[in-house]
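Homework help board

Subject: predicted structure for assignment chain

Our instructor gave us this sequence and asked us to write out the predicted structure in token form, then describe one feature. I got the tokens but I'm not sure how to describe them. Can anyone check?
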Amino acid sequence: MLSRPELILKLIVEQYLSDGTPVSSKFISEQGGLQVSSATVRNTMVQLEQMGLIRSPHTSAGRVPTTQGIRLFIDKMLQLEAVPQRWLNEIQQTLLPQLPPSVLIQRAGQLLANLTGLVSLLSPPKAGGRVIRQAELVRLAMDKLLLVVIDAEGDVLHRVLAQNADIPQQTLSRSLCVLNAALCGQCWPDAIGRLALMARTEGGDTERLLLDVMAQLSLDEMQQNQPLVYGQHHLLQEAEHQPDAALQQVVQLLEQPACLLQILAPVLQDQCTKLILGRESGITELHNVSIIALRYQAEPHRVLALLGPSRMHYAHLIPLVEAVGLQLSKHLNQP
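My token output:
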């Protein structure tokens, strides 16, 4: 049972999250079930303001919740809503168990951004490193090869290698032999280092071909270790229609998503959903941004997060993030 101050705070937060405008004592007193006068509401609002739970913006007669007020509302009063069936259907149809992990993670990020119109952030696809299981060079033409590298999780790298001249069969056979000796069973960075050393002992066409392979492996390693961000265009579109320095700062911060993941890492040591409200992040650029974050895999440590305005529809979005995280966890943690 909520006390009167808590009930009034609940009404203020819910209305503010709904339309973003200051909430007046008249509006509160007219709500059914409260049965108190405007004067009583005003006195209670003064108490809530003294407690730092609401504030008066500028000269407005209404009040808006502070970060502390929204936090109290979420921790004690928020009632989560069921995820709509159409969203559950999309999650199941998009995040299929047979997909390689990197594709699964990419699809999850795109799905979250598309469903919510917000920004999703996910750990790098290969957050825990990867071991190479198999490497192949397949001839497509006399001067063109297909590089295929499969890691232990079943993810496949395909790259077309175009050469300046025809590739003799002897060069292809020798290169493939060196590749398997250097790569198979090795962690990706270690494999690149081994290949670099072994290529130098070959010389000629074989060395040039192996160095091309090494360049492709290095590029892929860099890409696979970058956090994934989807939905930045939602922020950019909002910034175009509503010039806001805070929005521009968030856009710039998302250009270095690894920093955000480092901030989230300490609070995501268990599988509980975490909610970081605005100033709680300690980052100036995120003072008007809320983050719903969840660790969906322990080993390797993988997280997903949804970034949006402080006026986020938390009751709607928290269950959605949890549903996506559950689907990822179920597929990625199975033997």
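Reply (TA_rk): Your tokens look well-formed. For the description, you could write something like this. The chain is about 50% helix and 15% strand. That's the kind of observation they're looking for.
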